[in-house]
Amino acid sequence: MEYAYVGCRTTARRCAHGKGISVYAIDAKGEWKLQSIAPTLDNPAFLTLDRDRKALYTVHGDGHQVSAFKIRPDGNLEFLDTVDARGKNPVYAVPAFNNRFLFVASLQGGAIASLPIREDGSLGEAVSVMHLEGIPGKGVSHAHACVLDRTGKFLLVPTQARGVGYERVWVFRVDQETGSLTLASVSDARTYDEPRHIVLSPDNRRSYLINEKGSTIRMFSFDAAAGRLQPEQVVPTLQETYVGPNMASAIVMSLDGRHVYATNRIHEGIPPEGEAPAYADFRGQETLVSYAVDPETGMLEKPQWVSCEGYTPRFMTMTPDGKELIVANMDSDTLQFFSLERDGRPRYTGKTVRTESPCALVFR
């Protein structure tokens, strides 16, 4: 039996109505059945597993905490502990390759914390906190993700400025024995791009950064010896005839590295009954865009757009076999399934799993 864990938003502030971490059992035919919902603190908005796949961790959006759960043999979750993320609004987490530390990015806190992972999967208090400086006299740079390269030696951290910090990707060298981070390099984005998430190619030679407000993807070559990014290309996530509002959100690379996928969201946090007229004109135009990756240069080409079949595609992931994409449409309470054509183009399968305010998904 395979299991899927769905994180969500839960608060009225986020126009959400999730109840906790949903546990789905997936049978041999691929049918999903809700098995349980693990109650936890507000907004279990991003999920990750430890390297041994025995524990699950969630950050609590808009708060300051990270929670740990043991995964029981039946797939259900058993609460272990909650610790301080050492920054407001933690949004992303990733375990070190040696499974000794969990790195946590906090958005408003502008920080990356290294939390020890204990033998039983529970978390200890932070042993290292990297504060991301902002514009002198103003504030911090807002960390929106923290992603390890394919060697586990470097941590890539996209940050947003929001008027007080820097729009860039910070690359930190990881000390896997102590959990401490040392700055290796930075690569600045365009003003008002507001970097969000980043992925790396299977060969570790390239990375792809999605820019939330710029509605673009920036491709870099990556020097894995020095931990340095070199920008090579910028492509839009939107069709050239689309002139409405947008916030780019998720980015995923196919398992074979031949395609990159991104989502465009428009209406986040605006419930249907209270939606502004300006946004109503574009409702339903949230899209999933696919790109082919040039095997020689790594550059993105041949973009193709399809509907996300819902509202606010905040998150997206691939099934473990790499054959389908699942888009979490937060404001329409759905997970929508897309098969991948030979040319990489996503095709909606007609399959929908209904779940409340989804914004994260992991498999075990």
Describe the structure.
1% of the residues lie in helices and 51% in strands. It is mainly β. The protein starts with a strand and ends with a strand.
Short synopsis of the structure:
The protein has one helix and 29 strands. The chain has one helix at residues 277-280; strands at 2-8, 21-26, 32-38, 44-49, 55-60, 65-71, 77-84, 90-95, 101-106, 111-116, 128-131, 142-143, 147-148, 154-160, 168-174, 181-188, 195-200, 206-211, 216-223, 228-236, 247-253, 259-265, 287-293, 300-307, 313-318, 324-329, 334-340, 346-354, 358-363.
Which strand-content bin applies to the residues?
A: over 45%
Mean pLDDT: 95
How large is the radius of gyration? Answer: 19 Å
Number of helices: 1
How would the global form be characterised?
Answer: globular
Kindly state the number of beta strands.
29
| Sequence stretches where pLDDT stays below 50 over 5 or more residues | none
Helix content: under 10%
Through-space gap between termini: 9 Å
Structural class: mainly beta
User: How would you characterize the largest beta sheet?
Assistant: 5 strands, antiparallel
Order of SSEs: EEEEEEEEEEEEEEEEEEEEEEHEEEEEEE
